[in-house]
Give the backbone structure.
Amino acid sequence: MTALKSRIEKSNTAFRSIGEAATELGLETHVLRYWETRFPKEVRPIKRDDGRRMFRPQDMDALRAIRMLVHERGMTLKGAKTILAEQGIEAVLGGTVTLSAAALEPVPSPARELQASVARAFAGPDRQTRLEAALEELTDIKGRIDAARARSAA
């Protein structure tokens, strides 16, 4: 981006490219593309003839609301979609949204449970030793698997 472009500020009513929208929201462009598929009623950018997305002000408001629910409130995309459908974007942006206790409960996630388990297993002062032992064990297992494959291929 040139120095001149970085100094120009767009009005709130201006359309934004996906890069400008991502920068303004503090997100990556692939996140905006994904949210566009998950929230088709709320986020509908205009696509130019060359395929570039141009986000309208109402799209930016919807993205801000989704970001608030997902990143600041820790909701799932499904929960955020439910809140937006029931209470609307304006309620989220205005801070008048009411979240039920069920909406705030953490959703069980095998990936999060695995991350926590690994963090517990390798926490503490002997973390390096544990990691080296785990690597050695995995290397041994890989060797056994390779040997078994070689035997079955012969």
Q: What stands out?
A: The first helix runs from residue 3 to 7. The chain has a mean pLDDT of 84.
